[in-house]
Amino acid sequence: MSINIFMEHLVPRHLKHQYNLYDRNPKSGINNICNFPSKVCTVSVEGYCFLCQCDGWLPISVGQITDFKKLEDVWENETAKIIQKDLLEKKFSYCSVDSCNIKKYDVISNKHFLGLNFDESCNLACPTCRKSKINITSGRNFDKKIEIAEHISTLISNFEQPLEIKLSGNGDPFASLIYRNILMNTTPNPNHDYHILTNGLLLKKLLLKTKVHPQIKIIDISIDAGDKETYERVRKGGEWNLLIENLDFLHTLDKQWIISLNMVVHKNNMNSISNFVSLVKKYNCIGRLSRIENWGTFNNEQWLEQNVFANTHPSYNQVKNTITAIDYPNIFVGPMYY
Question: What's the pLDDT at 1?
């Protein structure tokens, strides 16, 4: 069996489409360095481990997270060694090099990184993210994910090297009973930093009850609006007053956390950008604006209506001018225009 066939065999079924979207052959002319396959592990919704912060960019699984007795083993198995050697030789055979910026500069992680994306449970059902509410609280799937969570908690607790743990890219770590298992039971380690992505509605209730809260360094709060009317329209199930109560709570804590409010901009919230900026100023935190992505929640007609960053959209110039006019150093704008 050739190496390419062997590696393609390790692509999970749900990532076959992403694998086929990009060239998975040796590249040439890339002189930059990436050390992610020796430092990074992302755990997908089905419990697979990938050696990149985006599983779609390097969709080759090195195994199920429950297969590994030590976290170090993720980067020391046969498949990991093949990928590491390929990048050391600067072939980038299995990587989506047009997506990850390796053509522009070195991609380096200074410490080990563990991204947890294996549970989609959330207390909201935002239309930009999902078609209906997802909250796994019982049944066979719940039991399987609890097993994964408990195993990951043990792996982290026994890992002594510097480590960043990021959760979650596809659910809320406080609303999820599965992620909550990790937050409540993992042994804190001063070498470990936690990066929490949340909708913020359960921070006051649960944050200080977590076992790992002394190690939290970054809290990213997705709010997608700066006013009550827009927020409760685009954040399905969210309550503006509860959000503000939680933001006020964070603001009173004497913690050295990096707090970021995040807004994904689309047609239904674009008129709230200025209010969002005002909210960032009020709490003296970081603000992040980013473009909308289609996670399979929109059909083609809906996508054309919501994607205000397409230069054919009627609101393209309005949104672009609004964002360009922002004059506040703590607002960061990600890649916006298609």
Answer: 55
Strands 163-167 and 49-50: unpaired
Q: Is-contact 178 136, C-beta < 8 A? A: yes
Q: Compute the distance between CA of residue 193 and CA of residue 19 in angstroms, rounded to an integer.
A: 31
CA distances from 65 to 32, 103, 150, 154 (A): 29, 30, 11, 11
Tens digit of each residue's pLDDT (9 = 90 or more) over 223-239: 999 999 999 999 999 99
CATH architecture observed for domain 112-333 = Alpha-Beta Barrel (3.20)
The two structure tokens encoding residue 74: 């993720």
Q: Name the residue type at position 259.
A: I
pLDDT at 236: 95
Using 70 as the pLDDT threshold, list the residues of the chain that sit under it: 1-2, 335-338
What is the value of pTM for the model shown? 0.92
Using CB atoms within 10 A of its CB, is residue 36 exposed (0-12), middle (13-18) or buried (19+)?
A: buried
CA atoms of 299 and 116, how far apart (whole Å): 28
pLDDT value, residue 338:
45
Domain extents in the chain: 3-40+54-88, 112-333
113 to 117, 149, 242: CA distances (angstroms): 13, 16, 32
- Closest listed residue to residue 151, CA positions, set 82, 63, 76: 63
Helices (H), the chain: 3-8, 16-21, 36-39, 78-88, 139-157, 177-185, 203-206, 228-234, 240-252, 273-283, 300-306, 316-324
State the alpha helices, DSSP H only, in 67-202: 78-88, 139-157, 177-185
For 137-173, the pLDDT digits (tens) are 999 999 999 999 999 999 999 999 999 999 988 899 9
The full length of the chain comes to 338
CA atoms of 148 and 151, how far apart (whole Å): 5
| First and final C-alpha spacing in the chain | 40
